[in-house]
């Protein structure tokens, strides 16, 4: 046996144990500028039907531009419509960028599945919501206006082309009568 | 979540490691040929292999390039000890963090990472690795094997094992050791999906290594052993390896399939999506392997006790045939009890009754084994050496852990204690007392051979034993008591009423950690003390 073998083994054990422990403890980097939920005191529910031809494809307004406000908890209620896998991915800016995504949830390919994704934004501006699997067809804009103070209730004026609804339909397939 | 960037780094790391592995493989081929065949040109390959199986290989770094069975065993022993210390430090860190009800220095994410690393490394790295190491090291000389073939395959499987362990460490997954699907795929702030990806590949590599090694063990035992050793004179350690190997070969592929499907699900969720109930499918496929691995960790320890007890008592094993029957019955029954992990998951009443019954039936072979040991102890004079202390402690711990485990077979009691520290106490009794204790006992028995004639410091070894045993009790008994009151496991904090239990467990964990440090100190100290012993040991048969 080499004279230094035991010392080498023991030092490898000690260095690797301590190093691994520090590595486990090392904080994992935040995913972007908005890693934490912005404070909010009101919520807004947004329903999206995931269809490979486009978000809300079976309605009169596919891939709608969503208008909302910052410091409001946006509750995305995503309903699977076809049998294909989708994601709801939201990133800041007018272009699709997976690297800077703030929301990225998978939608299982079973029709009727409801997936919730909640987030409140702090920075106003234009955001892109899209599907990683179908980036050409399933893409739309999310426009966030500043809420002035942080106490905006459900202050979405009716003249905006909003499509959100409060219906509780769990069936799939768009139902025009549920839209405003 | 810079997925593609991290994936590129990860992929290139894997590629580099694979290239290094294959380079090492070619060097090993050359080195082995020069060392073994080139020096003695008159020896045939079979004679070389006979010499290999009779040699007393000591710890050295050249074991990492030689590929005879003994060297492979030493590789596994060194690597699994490394994983043991990494996982143990993670465990002690969790204990210290749980001193106060609110987490002291670990955030919940960090706690989950430590929890996952502790569980995965201890089961796949330490328990499986030490079994593979002892099997490769002991079987050739116990069976006087005639040919030591497939060394290259063994070598590659070892590098798979090492790479798998390193990927588990690298990945920092926080999905606990069984990677239930929706948890694995959660794209949390920590990027659960990405981080579990590497762990799943690591687990797959380790399972491949386990499966192939099991087949090699079976070949070694049934095809390569000397003609003088009939099936009725097979060492009981070999019988325990037979049970283990059949268990691994029959159940690990199911888990490998499930892991592959989860890896696919991380990219395109199809198989185990939570909406249509198939998430339970992953749980079923996992526990089909997840329960046998517990027996995989325990059965070779049974075999070691059977081998070592007669040496320290001075009498043969009380009943050889009941020992074999017990080990084989454990193989049969342990493959049918996996459903008791899913009593609360809604398998259905009929299934619950079935798995409850089979779980109770497992008591029979376990009791046969334990009473066999007790009868052996009863009949002779006990020499209380350090390995014998570990053996007696293992028997006691196994009885306590077994009784606490059988109580959980009852569906009603299971409802009460599911997800509490009671379960943790149960399997830590067995895995600490039996698996870890017997691995250390075997290392102490093999010490003169592994160190080339050195002897460990007996007082330090006794201190190691006492701290390990006391630490086990101080840590697990408060867990059992608190768990029966409903102390939930696997969380970074707890309710204030449980603080006394958690503090006692933390003290036990620190005692355990100090004990293992003493083992390291003893190893270093004795390796640089003078040679005072022959390099024979009592576990391998004397040279013939």
Detailed description of the structure:
The complex is a heterodimer of chains A (180) and B (544). Chain A is of the alpha/beta class and 180 residues long. Chain A has a single domain, classed as Cupredoxins -  blue copper proteins (Immunoglobulin-like, Sandwich). Helix content of chain A is 12%, strand content 29%. Chain A has one helix at 5-25; strands at 43-50, 66-69, 73-80, 86-92, 103-107, 114-120, 125-130, 139-145. The relative contact order of chain A is 0.21. Residues 30-34 and 150-180 of chain A have low confidence and may be disordered. The longest helix of chain B is centred in the N-terminal third of the chain and has 36 residues, at 3-38. Chain B has one domain (71-527): Cytochrome c oxidase-like, subunit I domain (Cytochrome C Oxidase, Chain A, Up-down Bundle), CATH 1.20.210. Chain B has 19 helices and no strands. Chain B has helices at residues 3-38, 45-54, 69-97, 108-143, 151-171, 181-185, 192-222, 236-267, 279-290, 292-313, 320-334, 349-361, 363-379, 386-407, 411-417, 421-445, 447-450, 458-484, 499-527. The radius of gyration of chain B is 23 Å and the shape is globular. The A-B interface holds A 1-2, 5-10, 12-14, 16-18, 20-21, 23-25, 27-28, 30-31, 35, 85, 98-99, 101, 104-106, 108-110, 113, 133 and B 1-5, 58-61, 78, 81-82, 85-86, 88-90, 93, 106-107, 109-110, 113-114, 117, 169, 172, 185, 187, 189-191, 268-270, 273-276, 451-452, 520, 523-524, 527-528.
CATH superfamily of chain B: Cytochrome c oxidase-like, subunit I domain
Distance between the termini of chain A: 82 Å
CATH class of chain A: Mainly Beta
How many β strands of chain B by DSSP?
Answer: 0
If you average the pLDDT of chain B, what whole number results? 87
Summing up helix and strand content along with how strands pair, one would put the structural category of chain B as mainly alpha
Strand content of chain B: under 5%
Distance between the termini of chain B: 62 Å
Shape of chain B: globular
SS content category of chain A: alpha/beta
Strand coverage percent of chain A: 25-35%
| Separate helix tally of chain B | 19
Rg over alpha carbons of chain A: 22 Å
Helix share bin of chain A: 10-25%
In total, the number of strands of chain A is 8
- Helix percent of chain B reads over 70%
Radius of gyration of chain B: 23 Å
CATH topology of chain B: Cytochrome C Oxidase, Chain A
């Amino acid at each position: 046996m080499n004279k230094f073998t035991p010392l080498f083994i023991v030092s490898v054990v000690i260095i690797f144990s301590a190093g691994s422990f520090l590595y486990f403890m090392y904080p994992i980097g935040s995913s972007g500028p908005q890693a934490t939920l912005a404070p909010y005191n009101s919520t807004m529910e947004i329903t999206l039907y995931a269809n490979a031809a486009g978000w809300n494809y079976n309605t009169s307004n596919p891939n709608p531009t969503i208008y909302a406000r910052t410091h409001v908890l946006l509750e995305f209620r995503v309903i699977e419509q076809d049998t294909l896998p989708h994601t709801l991915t939201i990133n800041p800016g007018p272009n699709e960028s997976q690297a800077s995504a703030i929301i990225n949830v998978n939608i299982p390919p079973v029709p009727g599945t409801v997936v919730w994704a909640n987030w409140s934004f702090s920075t106003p501006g234009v955001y892109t919501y899209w599907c990683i699997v179908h980036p050409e067809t399933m893409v739309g804009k999310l426009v966030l206006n500043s809420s002035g103070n942080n106490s905006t209730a459900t202050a979405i004026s009716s003249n905006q082309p909003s499509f959100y609804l409060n219906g509780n339909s769990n069936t799939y397939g768009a139902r025009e009568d549920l839209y405003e | 979540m810079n997925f593609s960037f991290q994936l590129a780094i990860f992929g290139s790391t894997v590629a580099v490691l694979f290239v290094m592995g294959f380079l090492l493989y070619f060097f090993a081929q050359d080195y082995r040929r020069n060392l073994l065949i080139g020096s003695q040109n008159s020896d045939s390959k079979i004679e070389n292999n006979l010499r290999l199986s009779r040699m007393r290989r000591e710890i050295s770094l050249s074991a990492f390039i030689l590929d005879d069975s003994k060297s492979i065993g030493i590789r596994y022993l060194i690597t699994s000890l490394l994983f043991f210390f990494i996982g143990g430090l993670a465990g002690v860190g969790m204990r210290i963090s749980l001193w106060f009800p609110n987490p002291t220095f670990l955030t919940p994410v960090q706690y989950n990472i430590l929890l996952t690393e502790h569980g995965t490394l201890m089961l796949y790295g330490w328990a499986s690795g030490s079994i593979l190491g002892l099997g490769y090291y002991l079987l050739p000389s116990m069976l006087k094997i005639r040919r030591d073939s497939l060394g290259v395959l063994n070598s590659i499987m070892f590098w798979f094992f090492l790479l798998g362990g390193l990927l588990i460490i690298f990945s920092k997954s926080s999905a606990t050791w069984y990677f239930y699907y929706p948890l694995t795929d959660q794209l949390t702030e920590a990027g659960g999906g990405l981080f579990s990806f590497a762990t799943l590949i690591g687990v797959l590599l380790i399972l491949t290594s386990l499966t192939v090694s099991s087949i090699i063990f079976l070949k070694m035992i049934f095809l390569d052993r000397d003609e003088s050793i009939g099936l009725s004179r097979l060492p009981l350690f070999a019988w325990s390896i037979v049970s283990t190997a059949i268990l691994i070969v029959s159940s690990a592929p199911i888990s490998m399939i499930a892991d592959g499907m989860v890896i696919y699900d991380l990219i395109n969720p199809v198989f185990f999506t939570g909406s249509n109930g198939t998430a339970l499918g992953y749980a079923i496929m996992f526990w089909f392997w997840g329960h046998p691995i517990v027996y995989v960790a325990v059965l070779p320890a049974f075999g070691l006790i059977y081998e070592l007890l007669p040496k320290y008592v001075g009498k043969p094993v009380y009943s050889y045939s009941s020992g074999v029957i017990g080990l084989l019955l454990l193989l049969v029954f342990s493959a049918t009890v996996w459903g008791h992990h899913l009593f609360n998951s809604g398998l259905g009443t009929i299934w619950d009754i079935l798995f409850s019954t089979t779980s109770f039936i497992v008591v029979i072979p376990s009791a046969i084994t334990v009473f066999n040991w007790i009868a052996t102890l009863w009949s002779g004079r006990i020499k209380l050496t350090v390995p014998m202390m570990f053996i007696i402690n293992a028997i006691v711990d196994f009885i306590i852990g077994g009784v606490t485990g059988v109580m959980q077979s009852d569906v009603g009691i299971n409802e009460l204690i599911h997800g509490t520290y009671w379960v943790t106490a149960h399997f830590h009794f067995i895995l600490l007392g039996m698996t870890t204790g017997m691995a250390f006992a075997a290392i102490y028995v093999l010490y003169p051979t592994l160190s080339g004639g050195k002897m460990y410091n007996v007082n330090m070894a006794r201190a190691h034993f006492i701290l390990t045993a006391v630490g086990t009790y101080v840590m697990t008994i408060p867990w059992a008591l608190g768990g029966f009151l409903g102390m939930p496991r696997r969380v970074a904090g707890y309710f204030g009423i449980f603080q006394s239990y958690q503090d006692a467990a933390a003290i036990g964990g620190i005692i355990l950690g100090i004990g293992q440090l003493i083992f390291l100190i003893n190893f270093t100290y004795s390796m640089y003390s003078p040679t005072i012993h022959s390099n024979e040991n009592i576990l391998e048969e004397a040279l013939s």
